[in-house]
Amino acid sequence: MSVGSPTVCGMASKAGTKPSYKCSECGWAAIKWVGRCGECQAWGTVSEVGAVSVRTAPAAVVERPALPIGDIDVRRAQARSTGVGEFDRVLGGGIVPGAVVLVAGEPGIGKSTLLLDVAARAAREGATVLYVSGEESAAQVRVRAERIEAMAKSLYLASETDLATVLAQVQRLEPDLVVVDSVQTISSAEVEGAAGNVSQVREVTGSLIGAAKSRGIAMLLVGHVTKDGSIAGPRMLEHLVDVVVQFEGDRHSRLRLVRAVKNRYGPTDEVGCFDLSDVGIVGLPDPSGLFLSSRTLVVPGTCVTVTLEGRRPLVAEVQSLVAPTQIPTPRRATSGLDSSRVAMILAVLDRRAGVPLRQADTYLSTVGGVRLTEPAADLAVALAVASAVQDRPLPQGTVAMGEVGLAGEIRPVTGIPRRLAEAARLGFRTAIVPTGVLGSGTMPEGLKVHEVGDIFSAVQQATTSPR
């Protein structure tokens, strides 16, 4: 007997144990919901018989009526400085009252240290700041504040993990800035499940955002990340907040990069640079010196390039060491560079520029722990390897930038004028760039620019120029 037969459906109706479902196209009935009608084979037409469709009724009273756009007060959307210049750069000039900023990053990378510093600076400027710690006790936070000199009279600490208590603290203090460290440790008694699950994170974030918007409070939320580096919790978390800031950096390096992944109040192509030490975290307005070795020592196998982190040019150095080997498969080791891209550049060097690498171990690294991922660093990698193979240092004060193709051509990259201006500011005298740059605009004074069209010409230009 088929499921959709009249007898079965009639029995189910008399027993009253299960609801009846009917197809809106042909009238076929079933004792349970199915996605496809068993009679007319139509999709999505089976629905419960007698189901009531609920519609939200309009509110009886509108508390905040709509206003003409010209009557809106724009002062509520003006950013206020946090006191940390590099953080302001990433946020787009500062933090807007009522804005909710999500700061994500790996454990121990410096999120809490930076936000505690921001909270203290805001408190010294006269703002009332509430710092909610769900991971540490108030005493532990104070010890850190004393260590990084982040003490202020109007900075209030609360070690809470209950959402209702946190909201009560906000209602009592009426602060100008709230820092929650972290959103995954706060939970609501009204929602089932442990802190950090999808339901809890959704409820906690929604409640905190509602409090921030209704009271005009700027709010900084710390978020955990998963093993692959993405923000933990539902994807909706990133959609709800106004700004998403990502902390990046190597545990073994003092350099920390802060970049905006999402920003409703400013650009998302700005990067802030910080130096994390035992005494706190300090902004680096000019971090290029961290990525260069001693410029008085000229050795083979090194080449300097200019990379763009957002809109900020950073000068970085690539070092290479090439050693002969007898094993059939030479070793390729990289640090701070993409290994697959380095393997491609080595193959192009061997095939298109005649640089013998088939019987040599090749080691490549960047200085200062910076990671170079953009194609503009290809030419610097190639020239560093060629210099190491020939045991001839590149001319002192030389920078190189350009993308290397599989055919051996040197392709142009974006932001060449900005890169050259940064190189000239730091005292570099020679630049090796792709063909077509000289006609694109005025070159910086004191910088001699050489255009190359292929990898063979680039190697010849770099290794045969006078030292």
Polypeptide structure, described:
By secondary structure, this protein is of the alpha/beta class. The protein has three domains: 6-48, no CATH class; 75-285, Rossmann fold, CATH 3.40.50.300; 290-464, Ribosomal Protein S5, domain 2, CATH 3.30.230. It is built from eleven helices and 21 strands. The strands form five sheets. A nine-stranded mixed sheet has the order 6-5-7-8-4-9-10-11-12, with helices on both faces. A four-stranded mixed sheet has the order 13-14-16-15. Strands 2-1-3 form a three-stranded antiparallel sheet. A hairpin with a 2-residue loop joins β11 (271-277) and β12 (280-283). α8 (339-352) packs across α9 (378-390). The longest helix is centred in the middle third of the chain and has 18 residues, at 198-215. A motif (RadA KNRFG motif) lies at residues 262-266. This is DNA repair protein RadA. It holds the Pfam family Zn_ribbon_LapB.
